[in-house]
Amino acid sequence: MLSIKQFCEQLAVSRTTVLYYERRGLLTPTSRTSSGYRQYGEGELERFRTILTYRSYGIPVSEIENLLQQPQDKDAVLRQQFSALDLEIKKLRQQQHSIMTLLKEPELLNQGLLTKERWTEILKESGMDEQDMINWHKRFEQMEPLGHLKFLQSLNIDEDEIKQIRAWSQQS
């Protein structure tokens, strides 16, 4: 039997993560000590590894719950997730294409059609959160530093802010 600490160490997850999946009903300790401490066995380790694998595929917790109850649905759920990821990749490729179009036709940017606020709005509407936008800037700066600079200038961002954006974009 493993304590919750040992269980977490073996799986490289936090105690909070284990307790979250317990609250969701996906994991139950094998037993409790007389002091009320949770104990986990090999079955729980394997079950949690399965949960982590499904999460790494991007499968929502609610679907994982169904998969654990009805493992025969695994192929259908995995195919559905594959299709969802494929669609997401296509959307991201379209976004990349749109960005490249703007970069190849800087006059579109220079016409003042795109502002920093509007660009941020477009990225958010496309499903990006703050961290995604930071990563986007970092990739752009790595791949095309001059293009990134020109793009930021085209959004009418002041020079000090451009320096700040480029500085954190260059950090790993």
From TrEMBL:
Record-annotated HTH merR-type domain positions: 1-70
Gene Ontology terms, MF aspect: DNA binding; DNA-binding transcription factor activity
InterPro entries in UniProt: DNA-bd_dom_put_sf (IPR009061), MerR-type_HTH_dom (IPR000551), MerR_fam (IPR047057)
Keyword set, alphabetical order: DNA-binding, Repressor, Transcription, Transcription regulation
Cross-referenced SMART domains: HTH_MERR
Record flagged with keyword Transcription regulation: yes
Name used for this protein in its record: MerR family transcriptional regulator
Organism from which the protein derives: Vibrio inusitatus NBRC 102082
